[in-house]
């Protein structure tokens, strides 16, 4: 994939993800605001309903007591007065006269002073009852036969007698309110009534939450409040109580909700958690996709590097074999048996070298597919180390180096495949030789750690950076050196070592510092 296209793709995906997270956060924030708005609206409706019901209940109590007092023995009629209002309209075209008569009968009662629980010492309280009498009459003006004397003939007469209209009733309610203002608030409404009405109205509106309340008079607390109520301007909902006909009220019902925030969060918690879960899944999937893209890009680069290295390494033996074959075909050389044998040995060695490389590739492939048959027997680690050293000691001697052994482990028998484990040690020694710029100086140690034996291969070569140490056991990985192939290899040796050691229930790791050499460790369980 083109680098610019890859970067563009990552940027677009990142922007999309950030936008999605922003939208989700915005939606959750708006949901909380909407939930709080709905909560406030429901609470306000509930409070208004409670105050209205308390006011209606008080008015009803006064009317009931008034009717009871009027019907009792002490409420006999003391006097009555009738006031009439007249309205006359004459239609000239039809000679009809409309007469509307509205009479109000005023009945005076002497009600006991205990009606209002008054303590002012008055013997009686004046209460008047009003009855409405409405009469509508239509007359037609006629003349006698001679046309001299007019006469009024009734055409229609409607008479209605009934109670007061709404305005008249409102006047009585206002009269009650004037007196009620003189009554202490704790006698007008009880805590139990407020609690019961509040709980019922809030539950009816889906607000099932603990609350505290208090009745305040002109900003000052009264006795009517819950035990834990505290006034806080930010979290208080209030509604006026006992509003008079001028819209004035001396009392306010205040309600607070200590667990309001938790209630609001819980109201959208389900959808918010679901949204968060999907967002996390998307983020994880996005991170995985980016990781896989980067990983595939790295693998592609590593494979390209591997192919270049393999091509470079096959070039030399192929060229050597071609030269040897051409030399043998020379009539002067073919008769020289010693030179022919030397060229044949060169062909054999180069062929063996290419075969070993192909075997390593096939071996790793089989290991990944679990197709490599690794049978394990009781073997001595020290013997395997000595055998592996014999495979590389000629190369070390040729470069003027050494391999010193420090086999100090008192127990060294493990369950392993002798051939594969020998290849493991050879690969580690070969790696130490390759990356030693001067004469290879290698030390091999063994020591026992509880029920494990630890093999340590230490060199004084070029060393590795921390980033390389983390990746050195990955397949195809080789430290990047550009187009310089001064170190032969294809990045499979240490990957093979890791696979074999893990198959033997062991561990392999490395420690290194650039310019100060490297140390490789193998940890295997003892029998």
Task: Describe the protein's architecture and organization.
There is one protein chain. By secondary structure, the protein is an alpha+beta fold. About 50% of the residues lie in helices and about 25% in strands. The chain has 11 helices and 15 strands. It has helices at about 5-70, 165-180, 185-190, 190-205, 260-330, 330-335, 335-370, 380-400, 420-435, 465-470, 495-505; strands spanning about 75-90, 95-110, 125-145, 150-160, 210-215, 220-225, 235-240, 250-255, 375-380, 400-405, 415, 440-450, 450-460, 505-510, 520-525. The chain has a 5-stranded mixed beta sheet, with helices on one face. A hairpin with a 4-residue loop joins strand 1 (about 75-90) and strand 2 (about 95-110). Helix 1 crosses helix 4 and helix 8 packs parallel to helix 9 (about 420-435). The radius of gyration is 54 Å and the shape is rod-shaped. Residues about 120-125 and about 480-490 have low confidence and may be disordered. It is an enzyme of class 2 (transferase). GO terms for molecular function: kinase activity. Pfam families: HATPase_c (PF02518), HisKA (PF00512). Keywords: Kinase, Membrane, Phosphoprotein, Transferase, Transmembrane, Transmembrane helix. Its EC number is 2.7.13.3.
């Amino acid at each position: 994939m083109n680098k610019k296209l890859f970067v563009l793709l990552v940027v677009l995906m990142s922007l999309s993800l950030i936008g999605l997270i922003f939208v989700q956060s915005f939606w959750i924030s708006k949901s909380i605001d909407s939930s709080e708005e709905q909560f406030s609206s429901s609470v306000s409706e509930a409070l208004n309903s409670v105050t209205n019901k308390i006011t209606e209940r008080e008015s009803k109590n006064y009317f009931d007591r008034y009717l009871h007092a009027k019907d009792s023995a002490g409420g006999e009629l003391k006097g009555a007065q009738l006031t009439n209002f007249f309205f006359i309209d004459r239609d000239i075209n039809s000679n009809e006269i409309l007469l509307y008569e509205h009479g109000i009968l005023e009945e005076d009662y002497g009600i006991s002073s205990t009606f209002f629980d008054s303590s002012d010492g008055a013997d009686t309280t004046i209460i008047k009852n009003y009855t409405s009498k409405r009469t509508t009459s239509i007359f037609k003006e006629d003349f006698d036969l001679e046309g001299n004397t007019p006469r009024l003939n009734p055409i229609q007469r409607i008479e209605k007698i009934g109670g007061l209209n709404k305005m008249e009733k409102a006047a009585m309610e206002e009269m009650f309110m004037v007196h009620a203002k003189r009554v202490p608030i704790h006698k007008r409404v009880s805590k139990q009534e407020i609690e019961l009405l509040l709980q019922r109205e809030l539950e009816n509106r889906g607000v099932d939450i603990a609350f505290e309340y208090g009745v305040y008079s002109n900003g000052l607390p009264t006795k009517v409040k819950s035990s834990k109520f505290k006034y806080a301007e930010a979290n208080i909902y209030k509604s006026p109580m006992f509003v008079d006909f001028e819209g004035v009220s001396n009392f306010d019902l205040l309600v607070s909700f200590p667990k309001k925030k938790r209630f609001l969060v819980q109201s959208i918690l389900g959808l918010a958690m679901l949204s968060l879960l999907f967002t996390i899944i998307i983020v994880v999937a996005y991170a995985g996709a980016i990781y896989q893209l980067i990983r595939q890009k790295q693998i592609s680069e590593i494979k390209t590097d591997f192919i270049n290295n393999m091509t470079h390494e096959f070039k030399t033996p192929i060229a050597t074999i071609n030269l040897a074959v051409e030399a043998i075909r020379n009539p002067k050389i073919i008769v020289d048996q010693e030179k022919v044998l030397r060229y044949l040995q060169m062909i054999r060695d180069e062929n063996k070298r290419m075969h070993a490389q192909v075997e390593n590739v096939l071996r790793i492939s089989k290991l990944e597919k679990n197709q490599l048959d690794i049978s394990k027997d009781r073997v001595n680690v020290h013997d395997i180390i000595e055998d592996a050293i014999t495979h590389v000691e000629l190369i070390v001697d040729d470069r003027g180096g050494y391999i010193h052994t420090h086999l100090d482990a008192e127990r060294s028998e493990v369950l392993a495949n002798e051939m594969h484990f020998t290849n493991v040690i050879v690969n580690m020694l070969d790696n130490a030789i390759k990356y030693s710029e001067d004469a290879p100086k290698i030390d091999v140690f063994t020591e026992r750690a509880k029920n494990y034996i630890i093999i340590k291969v230490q060199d004084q070569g070029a060393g590795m950076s921390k980033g390389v140490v983390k990746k050195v056991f990955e397949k195809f990985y080789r430290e990047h050196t550009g187009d310089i192939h001064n170190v032969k290899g294809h990045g499979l040796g240490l990957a093979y070592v890791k696979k074999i050691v893990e198959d033997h229930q062991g561990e392999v790791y490395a420690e290194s510092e650039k310019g100060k050499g490297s140390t490789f460790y193998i940890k295997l369980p003892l029998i």
